[in-house]
Amino acid sequence: MRRSFVICRSFAMFACVLGLSGPLSAQGKPAPAGAARRPAAAAAQAPGVVTINAYDYFYEAPNPIAAGVVTLRLINRGQDFHNIWVVKIDEGYAFSDFMRAMGPGRALPGWFTPLGGPESPEPGQESRLTVELAPGRYALACLLPAASHGTTHMAKGMFLPLTVTKGADRPTPKGDIPVRITKDGFVAPEAVKAGTHLLHVYSESPTPRGFRLARLAEGKTAADARAWIAAGQTGSAPFVLVGGTTPMAQGGTVWMPLTFAAGRYVLLPMGIDLGSGELRYQSGDVATILVP
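Above: the chain's sequence. Below: its structure in token form.
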């Protein structure tokens, strides 16, 4: 299947949908000679793996992609944090409807389904998340706030339409660490062995919720993490982000491959602030996982 690569950098660039190749300027014109070339996301890789490059503040991703069990590989090539929110758009609605619906202060409409997506890795790192995608129209967006610019990453251009076409059947992953997202927090194992695991995440929350999985710094606790968040997230964070999922609808399932080093990890609840359209830390119980 032939793929196009899509780059969108301006909130008004709805025409930037298909057929783009090579770097573009911020106005959607070909970049000048000598401009940095973007690494190709279509490089040879395992079947069902889709690489998405995140820059400050735009994505580069293949379009269309094949349906089925798909692993989204998010590479953070920017200096800021970036995530991917995957939304399935119902028949009869368009990507432009999704963009209008995500304006600040608007309730989430009932004609799209949040499926989650890879949470932000540290700059220069990557995170992966596996989800099952049916054929249809989708939207990808970064929900993080850009505090220094007074707007969201999505409003600065971090959004893409995505078409999912009929694809080959691939087996559903078999996770070995179950995590349930509930209305008030999480249900997760208290301890796991060091090494590579596959988290099987299922949402029971009636409102779209996700989480950030973070490794606590030496001597820090979950209470330190919550205190840092409550204090406005200023100064050095008492943890390092290692993965997670953006908000998922009730009944949603994703899988997350992670390699755990010895230490203490914390699951921090995340949700959408309807007042701003941003992803925010939410109230609710955190969960800690000890890796001896």
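The longest strand covers residues 263-273.
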